[in-house]
Design brief:
The protein is mainly alpha-helical and 312 residues long. It has twelve helices and four strands. A hairpin with a 2-residue loop joins strand 1 and strand 2. Helix 3 runs antiparallel to helix 9. It is flat and about 105 Å long.
Amino acid sequence: MTTKIDKAGPVDSPPPAPENIKAIPVRHYGRWVSAVVAIALLVTLVLAFARGDVNWAAIPDYFFDSEVLRGVRNTVWITILSMALGVVLGIILAVMRLSKNPVTSSLAWGYIWFFRGTPVYVQLLVWFNLGLVFHYINLGPIYKDEWSDFMTPFLAALLGLGLNEAAYMAEICRAGLQSVDEGQSEASQALGMSHAKTLRRVVLPQAMRVIVPPTGNEFINMLKTTSLVIAVQYWDLLQAATNVGQSTGATAEMLFLAAAWYLILTSVLSVGQYYLERYYARGSSRSLPMTPLQRIRVNLLSGSNRQGGAGA
């Protein structure tokens, strides 16, 4: 700092302005190399499928075939019913597992151990062939019939998928219930609320933030697992695609068609899962990130504002 002397006395001159720092970004050559390799592999894969002996024109011709659409409808229907059964039983099993009653807790643990330890495909076949053990089903004056007439392909698919899903949902719900601080339950009981009301009004709403994300994944996984119900002769998307492929001779093409329908359905479920998770995350975040539609709207508005400013 320099000092100048004038008639009024010494005056300090301002310090020189600092030089501007020129930041040079680091070049990541590995990213460019990996991107080029990934694009090359993708192009090679696309060309291999394009040059293969596949009649791609058959896929759009049968994409909205009546049998295929019936298979899509049955797949969505069995997915919804199986998940509903799995969620309801899963909540009951989770509460039983957390019970202080050793018998109730042990029964829930045994159920989860059995259904998580055996493949879904085997469970479907067991339900479909239980007529070897139970020749009749007798519910007294309510219902009585032979097991072969009672256990339809739809019922076998529903029980095989739903009861298996209940074991996984029980563990998901148990983790969600245990994530809520015990002080919440103690405070509710101190206010005179019953155990059931505390669970319904205090614990479950807070546990949903932990339960919803894996439940959405289970829903998507259930949609794909429904392809196994072909073992019990239930008419689903895979069964429809297989039958159309055998009748038309385009077996491989119809499998690609089924894969396309599965991708469409899982994409729709993924969007629903995203907004459902966003809904239950409202209490845990001060500001939620913008949705893709909100980002597009903001970008469009900012672009129009720039053009308006430039024109002015």
